[in-house]
């Protein structure tokens, strides 16, 4: 929990530094909104669904996008677009648990709603860099790969001349490119009418990366948000990669994925993209936007692979130990003072031998013990013990708080 | 979200100051564990249950206790008892939504596991006082009422002499005492064999509060954790109230409820109690403990009634506004510097007229605008505008961060 919370806090802090407001939503939604929007695989095979006592068909959210689309649509009249929103929620999918996949995961969702402007792309890319920085990840550890479906469509239509009827299947093929041997891809392509010559042309064109841009019609180059971003100072934040497609739902132009560069774990960490119209299911108003969803399971694996997981923090700074039962109220009084100074303090609940209590305090991760002894207490003093260095000395009760505050704030404490 | 998050953070901070470690658990659990432990009403009428694609009967957790019991039992071998744990989780119950009740609510669970010592009671009571303090609630706004089932059992057995067979029904009757007219209670009591004389004796004994204690057998007075707490300095933290029973599950002795004292909202805010053996379903090891669960819906009503809800915070401190499209990269550079200094900064995504952008920045809650103008930028300067006072002045780029850091840290900023 401590490791997880520290990682999560880095995410929140970074996103909030960009002025994103946090939202939340119900874990139960109408099953329909996933059946309508989330794609066949999720709706047919991965949904945890139930019928409630009122006869409604509900599902545990497998993702946050339909919920936020509904919320944005429902508040469109009062929102000042473009809006920056983020959430961090648990999602459920009935998948086969494996490395990087669990049935419940926590997802950070970051979106800008209500703008087509390529400045949104740049902000999201910058933010991703800052998120990765905040986690201690350097640029040699990961890579932001960005594609553009508008560019890809133009490649298919204007360069490779794939028949319109085969566009969808070709996109799905490109999406599988890195996971399937080329010969298998070639066979599959032939099945929906892409012959060997077209297949080779497709592959060489995609492999040429940004070099394909000059061959595309001027209109595509000028309207593509990504093509405009590539002319800005932000071009150094990512590599253009036409193989990035991101399934088939929502996204209409920019699509991106953050890849782990470690050979041990070479795969997509998270991704997102631009949607031309998010909330069509809930409103007639066109609401474009761009965003990403980052899951905690793959992120944890990434941080683990690169040795970036933070150390777990202890739960307590100081333990107050009475040497006898009748000094328990005195130890509570000491603890009260320390807590008022925001020092995390526990007390002994079941007084035993001092040695045992000290060993116990040490194991608990406390840095200091305050021992309440009979003679010391009579002169309004206690014994302060450094549980690491083992040094101890008597100190007046009135000095304990200031003394411990200073020691705990010292570097390395 | 901002209000909710501020309230929640007060809770976490207070509980952590006592050295409680946070845990989390799955929202889906086997339906059985609630059927076994949570009482008839929850299991039969309030559970959101489903059968997953693997044929398992699951339920959305209606409460956290069975989950934490399983976790404690599963780790009993490695835990250093007594342990202090807390969680904050959403729970689902299919109830009729009404004031103070929604189908989803967030519940703070705070428990000490593995100790029978009355010091646990005292710590939990102190912690409740600190939690209420942290929310700004003074003692005239709320009351901690504490009962003891061991004392109540003795009252029924030794004072009123209720037949053993009618104990359960009498307890249930007492639990309903404040919600039902006395005449109705008297009738119900008669039905399970409590005649008018016994009923009157029961009522007058319970109403006498702590005065009943000397009439109880010495053994009860000595073994009751609460009777021992009443002899300590902690007696001022609560009132002893034999009418507090808390349903019938889990609790074996101390039971308590925090009541709102406002006449407009006079009811239980949250409560808890001591269990003699928490994890009997999962282990043969006896694990006693004490704890409470605090829901966010009733808490919100309480804070609202007493004018204690915090003000929502804005999401941004500074907005950077370029006066023209080609100054957008410059405005991003300024924003980058501010964010590095942990200042929450947004930039204009779709540059429009300056007046409109300033109005927009003001509405967003930002305190300052940094205007990036053409001439100023050429001499490496920007215009800083106080969105509240409307004053503005030119400032060198190298001074912006220090200047805004200082202004935002000033009181009232």
TrEMBL record, chains A, B:
Residue ranges constituting the Aminoacyl-transfer RNA synthetases class-II family profile domain according to the UniProt record: 1-310
Chain sites annotated for binding L-histidine: 63-65, 93, 107, 111, 246, 250-251
Cellular component aspect of the GO annotation: cytoplasm
Entry's Gene Ontology molecular function annotations: ATP binding; histidine-tRNA ligase activity
EC number: 6.1.1.21
InterPro entries tied to this protein: aa-tRNA-synth_II (IPR006195), aa-tRNA-synth_II/BPL/LPL (IPR045864), Anticodon-bd (IPR004154), Anticodon-bd_dom_sf (IPR036621), His-tRNA-ligase (IPR015807), HisRS-like_core (IPR041715), HisRS/HisZ (IPR004516), HisRS_anticodon (IPR033656)
CDD domains from the UniProt entry: HisRS-like_core, HisRS_anticodon
Keyword Ligase: yes
Any one GO BP annotation for this protein: histidyl-tRNA aminoacylation
Protein family (similarity comment): Belongs to the class-II aminoacyl-tRNA synthetase family.
NCBIfam families in the record: hisS
Protein name: Histidine--tRNA ligase
Organism of origin: Streptomyces cellostaticus
């Amino acid at each position: 929990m401590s490791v997880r919370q520290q990682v999560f806090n880095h995410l929140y802090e970074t996103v909030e530094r960009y002025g994103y407001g946090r939202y939340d939503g119900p874990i139960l939604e109408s099953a329909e909104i996933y059946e309508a929007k989330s794609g066949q695989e999720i709706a047919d095979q991965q949904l945890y669904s139930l019928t409630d006592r009122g006869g409604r068909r509900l599902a545990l959210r497998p993702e946050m996008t339909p919920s936020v689309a509904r919320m944005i649509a429902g508040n469109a009249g009062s929102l000042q677009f473009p809006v920056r929103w983020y959430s961090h929620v648990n999602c459920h999918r009935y998948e086969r648990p494996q490395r990087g996949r669990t049935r419940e995961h926590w997802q950070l969702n970051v979106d800008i709603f209500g703008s087509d402007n390529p400045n949104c792309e740049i902000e999201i890319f910058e933010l991703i860099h800052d998120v990765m920085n905040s986690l201690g990840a350097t640029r040699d550890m990961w890579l932001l790969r960005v594609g553009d479906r508008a560019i890809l469509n133009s490649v298919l239509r204007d360069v490779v001349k794939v028949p319109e009827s085969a566009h969808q299947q070709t996109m799905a093929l490109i999406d599988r490119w890195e996971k399937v041997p080329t010969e298998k891809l070639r066979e599959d392509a032939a099945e929906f009418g892409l012959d060997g010559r077209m297949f080779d042309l497709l592959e060489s064109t995609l492999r040429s990366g940004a070099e394909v841009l000059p061959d595309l019609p001027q209109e595509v180059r000028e309207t593509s948000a990504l093509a405009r971003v590539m002319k800005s100072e932000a071009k150094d934040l990512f590599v253009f990669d036409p193989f990035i497609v991101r399934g088939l739902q929502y996204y209409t132009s920019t699509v991106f994925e953050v890849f782990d560069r470690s050979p041990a774990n070479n795969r997509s960490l998270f991704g997102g993209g631009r949607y031309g119209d998010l909330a069509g299911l809930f409103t007639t108003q066109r609401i474009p936007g761009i965003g990403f969803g980052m899951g905690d399971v793959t992120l944890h694996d990434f941080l683990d692979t690169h040795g970036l997981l933070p150390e777990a923090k202890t739960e307590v700074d100081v333990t107050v130990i009475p040497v006898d039962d009748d000094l328990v109220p005195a130890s509570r009084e000491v603890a009260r003072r320390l807590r008022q100074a925001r020092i995390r303090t526990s007390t002994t609940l079941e007084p035993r031998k001092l040695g045992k209590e000290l060993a116990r305090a040490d194991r608990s991760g406390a840095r200091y013990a305050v021992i309440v002894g009979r003679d010391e207490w009579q002169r309004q003093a206690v014994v302060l013990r450094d549980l690491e260095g083992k040094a101890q000395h008597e100190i007046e009760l009135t000095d304990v708080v200031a003394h411990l505050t200073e020691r705990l704030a010292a570097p390395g404490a």
